[in-house]
UniProtKB/TrEMBL annotation, chains A, B:
Belongs to the homoserine dehydrogenase family. Residues 10-129 form the Aspartate/homoserine dehydrogenase NAD-binding domain. It catalyses: L-homoserine + NADP(+) = L-aspartate 4-semialdehyde + NADPH + H(+). GO terms for biological process: methionine biosynthetic process; threonine biosynthetic process. NADPH binds at K105. This is Homoserine dehydrogenase. The keyword Metal-binding applies. L-homoserine binds at E190. Residues 137-315 form the Homoserine dehydrogenase catalytic domain. Its EC number is 1.1.1.3. One of its GO terms (molecular function) is metal ion binding. SUPFAM superfamilies: ACT-like, Glyceraldehyde-3-phosphate dehydrogenase-like, C-terminal domain, NAD(P)-binding Rossmann-fold domains. It comes from the Bacteria.
């Protein structure tokens, strides 16, 4: 059986997981690909550090050219997790005619478009299944399994850290700060949690999902992004009283050939399949014109789940090599990129206000919404101390533009403070 | 752009859905395949009947040879739903060098092995994504997305009719008979519901899932099958008291290179992702050594979901045609078929007994279980009238052999009646 050699850039948890799976599942993999696939060389940062998976004989180097320039290596796995250096190495690898598999969502979200072009020019495969929702094979499912369908909406819990925190805040009533601390102690959150809690990580994944689901290249700036930093346990309890669970969702939807992508805390009915996704798990919910509602659930991160997706990509490269069909884009579905205007982006919203308990304040508030043609489907008023009341509104469907106009005018009203507004999905 | 003509055998809901999707999603499909794909001829039973999707110009015939023998047709879609005639037509199609896409689970469960061989001999593609879990692209996910992994267990809610009935019995307390009647009125269940309620339909799907997940050819006779006909609302309530939901699951699991496949009512913790799958929806839960727990959820049937899976298969055939790679098996993972012995098939069980309320009966019962080394993790005793008590036991893990031995000896004890036993998954 002929060999296919793999070079790995980066030897953290995912890199060593790749070495391990290729070794442990050798017989299945060689049977389905017809190749003996193994990692022969690994780029590490520190040659003196001990390796996590010592059983397999792998050459180690701290010089990237030793790996990228090795003519016996045909597949490069990039699992370093930075952006600039990874971009440089991946470009060099593709130009050297190597197929590339990467788990790097930041790289693909920011530079995917150019890398896909370079890969095609060099007749190379470029796959990145592990970049979104770790162990869930969601990208390949969208590209192949749902190929026949016209997708209308893709909603995902695509950040495990914030889902873990929200689960703790919901089920144990932990504060944001305590939930964050637990996530940090368990290694789910970085010491600087900005990328997770402000929705940036989720937004990057949504850029990738949008490209494959709708064939459109949106940039990170196009994603309207709100994280969970300002979310309180009070709001979670209010949502619960109204029959909803709050999840941080990435939502990409298409309407008349234009797409809107956002990341926002979202109220979901408790019976919605995404409501039951707990802890650090991820799930992507897809609405197709024909297939209807399908959902894909699993671990969003972790050494072996992520490595398993990387190895599935390697297997696809190997099959393509056997069939002589390398160099076709992961997805050939390309559509002119049109961004849905805020006036056409319709949704229901949860709005939380604080109002002085004075005659006329409620009327003023109602007027501001009515001026923007926003109706209410539910209202909950809770008395508070200091003559202040908390009012929670679930609106009927309205445009993002109208909602923002209403909230802007409300901010100028005395006696009314807008605490927060989140999306509601049914 | 060159054309690819499709002939459809059977023009019920799925057949007309295929015509419709190929027409409505024409531009996306031609972009990703490079072909103008259309249905040009359809086999119907009755030429005088009106067609469901009239907008597309399709020739209709009641002679199968008009379709199979048409040299301008390269892909045959079989959506007739019988076994013998479908088998004959599919064989003829493959031998005539046509690629075949079928939604026929019975055909694939019973004759898949031979058809796969004939397809390969004739350099033809044979795909059957729609045969399991309608609109969920589960087969392709197992074959490609999870290719790198060593799967350990596949558990599925793969019959929508019984899941609908169990949902009604659980949430509304309907009796089995009333739930069945509702399912029949809504068109989910046939007038003779045997295949659904006795688990036969689920068993056929598990044969297909087992082939792709573990590379093993089990026959229907190898699947230990219990349906829901004997399940009572009382049992659902007892399970609920113990924190469980009852679902009809197909379970295929591998242990030391041997596989066990069963269909059985199963108690799942309410927090298990499969517990939240309601109504006629399907879901398949996969446990992989590396990827961990993933789940795939969606509609199990229906015109457009099923047709959407058929069209995804057609798209794969088209891509293969473009690349010149037809004739490779859907899955090339083949493993020697070993059946796990009942003594090695371990699980926890729910056992429901009726016992006369007499000194010594409980001791006798406990002795019979202890003799087979079966321990109890939970016991619930409910007093009833006529000096009879209902006792429910959740056992510790035991082998299927030991459970059956214990139940056999219990049946010979006076004052003890074994009402039912179901599996418990944690």
């Amino acid at each position: 059986m002929s060999s296919l050699n793999v070079g790995v850039l980066g030897f953290g948890t995912v890199g060593s997981g790749v070495v391990r799976i290729l070794d442990e599942h050798k017989s299945k993999i060689s049977q389905i690909t017809g190749y003996d696939i193994k990692v022969t060389k690994v780029l590490v940062r520190d040659l003196t550090k001990t390796r996590r998976y010592e059983d397999v004989d792998v050459a180690v180097t701290d010089n990237a050219n030793d790996v990228i320039g090795d003519p016996s290596i045909s597949i490069i796995v990039e699992v370093m997790g930075t952006i600039d250096i990874a971009y440089d190495y991946v470009l060099k690898s593709l130009r050297a005619g190597k197929h590339v598999v990467t788990a790097n969502k930041d790289l693909i979200a920011l530079h995917g478009d150019h890398l896909i072009t370079v890969a095609r020019e060099n007749n190379c495969d470029l796959f990145y299944e592990a970049s979104v929702a770790g162990g869930i094979p969601i990208l390949r499912t969208i590209v192949n399994g749902l190929a026949s369908d016209h997708l209308k909406k893709v909603m995902g819990i695509v950040n495990g850290t914030t889902n873990f925190m929200l689960t703790k805040m919901t089920s144990e009533g932990l504060s944001y700060e305590t939930a964050l601390k637990q996530a940090q102690e368990l290694g789910f959150a970085e010491s600087d949690p900005t990328n997770d809690v402000d929705g940036i990580d989720a937004a990057r994944k949504m850029v990738i999902l949008t490209r494959l689901s709708f064939g459109m290249n949106v940039s990170l700036d196009d994603v309207s992004t709100t994280g969970i930093r300002q979310l309180t346990v009070d709001e979670i309890k209010l949502a619960d009283q109204l029959g909803y669970t709050i999840k941080l969702l990435g939502i990409a939807e298409e309407h008349n050939g234009a797409v809107d992508v956002c990341v926002t805390p979202t109220l979901l009915p408790k019976t919605h399949p995404l409501s039951g996704v707990h802890n650090e798990n991820n799930a992507v919910f897809v609405l197709g014109e024909a297939a209807g509602e399908t959902m894909y659930y699993g671990p969003g991160a972790g050494e072996l789940p992520t490595a398993s997706s990387v190895v599935s990509d390697i297997i696809t490269v190997a099959k393509n090599t056997k069939l002589g069909t390398n160099g076709n884009a992961f997805s050939s579905y390309v559509h002119e990129t049109n961004k849905l205007a805020d006036k056409d982006c319709l949704a229901k919203y949860f709005v939380r206000l604080k109002m002085t308990d004075e005659t006329g304040t409620f009327l003023k508030m109602t007027q501001r919404f009515t001026e923007q043609k926003i109706g209410f489907s539910r209202i909950l008023q809770l008395p508070e101390s200091n003559e202040q009341a908390t009012v929670v509104i679930i609106t009927h469907e309205t445009s993002r533009e109208n909602l923002h106009l209403a909230l802007e005018t409300l901010k100028n009203e005395s006696g009314i403070v807008v605490n927060s507004h989140y999306r509601v999905e049914d």
